[in-house]
Design goal:
By secondary structure, the protein is α/β, with parallel strands linked by helices. It has a single domain, classed as TIM Barrel, CATH 3.20.20.70. It contains 7 helices and 6 strands; from the N terminus they run H-H-E-E-E-H-E-H-E-H-E-H-H.
Length: 133
């Protein structure tokens, strides 16, 4: 859930007993975005982490890095994953196996989305899995 969860945090609590919920927290400079990144909310990323205690995961995307292949926001992701007990999935900026290695050392990080890097042949999924083992 993305924009719907931001607009109505209780929606996550109402749905969580029925199915696992991952809350998408897309942000630009720490401000959570809505509606496919076209609107800024008034919610700060780190405040959002405490609004969804029944979420099963957070997918955190740094909009300024997504699809840019410039490396993930390691510092911001480390702060986010250490600020919650809910697993965090990193998204945005992954460009290399070195990025995967760096992310794999973070406590609380449960996964990585590396779409464009894989699509562009920077590495294969099997290579990323090998790095993580």
């Amino acid at each position: 859930m993305g924009s719907a969860a931001i607009r109505d945090p209780n929606l996550v609590a109402r749905c969580a007993p029925v199915l696992p919920i991952a809350v998408g927290l897309d942000h630009r400079n720490g401000v959570v975005a809505l509606e496919g990144w076209t609107e800024a909310s008034t919610l700060q990323l780190y405040d959002a982490l405490s609004l969804y205690p029944t979420a099963d995961a957070f997918v955190i995307t740094d909009i300024s890095r997504d699809g840019m292949l410039v490396g993930p926001d390691l510092e911001g992701l480390a702060m986010a994953s250490s600020s919650t007990t809910i697993p965090v999935i990193a998204s945005g900026g992954v460009s290399s196996l070195d990025d995967i290695r760096a992310l794999s050392t973070m406590d609380g990080l449960a996964g990585v989305i590396a779409g464009k890097a894989i699509y562009e042949g920077r590495f294969a999924v099997t290579d990323a899995v090998a790095v993580l083992q």
